[in-house]
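On clarity, I found the account of how folds are encoded harder to follow than it need be. Since the whole study asks how a given chain folds, the encoding of that fold should be made plain. For illustration, here is how one protein appears when written out as sequence plus structure tokens:

:::
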Amino acid sequence: MIVEWTRPNLDHRLVLQWRHGWELEHKKHPSYEGRTSLSLGKLTNGDVSLKLSEVKLSDEGKYRCYILSLERESIVELVVGAASSPVLNVSKSSSGVVLECESKGWYPEPELFWLDAEGKLLSAGAPETVRGPDGLYTVSSRVTVEKRHGNSFTCRVQQSKIQQIRQKQIHVPDDLFPANHAVAIVGYVGFVILCIIAVVFILAVIRIEIQRKGKSMTRKGKERKEDMTEK
């Protein structure tokens, strides 16, 4: 049996050639040396699947399998993917708590989302994506959050093409959030208003008391004059 696996987009297309029980290593593309094989056990059943080890990003693409004795061929597309779990960091700011998420070693380019405790999307700026010399992507994002029910937040990184999702959840303690200045201001204003009302009330009472004493003294003065007149 003669089996050939080739890649149409390469100048030297041969990936593997199997001829009468032997793989001809010297004829294949240099980048595939020592990385390709067929399963001897499956060959007896007509299975000529290509086994590729130490997969690289450059291995992605279409492969052609051709069986010479049957004059039949088949095209297979290899999709290469890589994923890794995100790392979260927390810091404080005057407006809330800042969450930072970073995930390295992705391929193809992934997406990043922030979710709250109820699974709803958080409003955040576009994530930053950088592709390294190894061809892998690093994605990062930061978002400022305020205190809310649950205080749990999730960074989700996903790649739909390879159907991979990685996510990490974090719970932010209440004491990390800045004090609610609005509540403090309302409380202060309320206290000042109560003080003003109290002062006005006290002044009103004093005024009423002064007026009452003044009327009493006037009445007593009239009574004394009347007594002196009668005498």
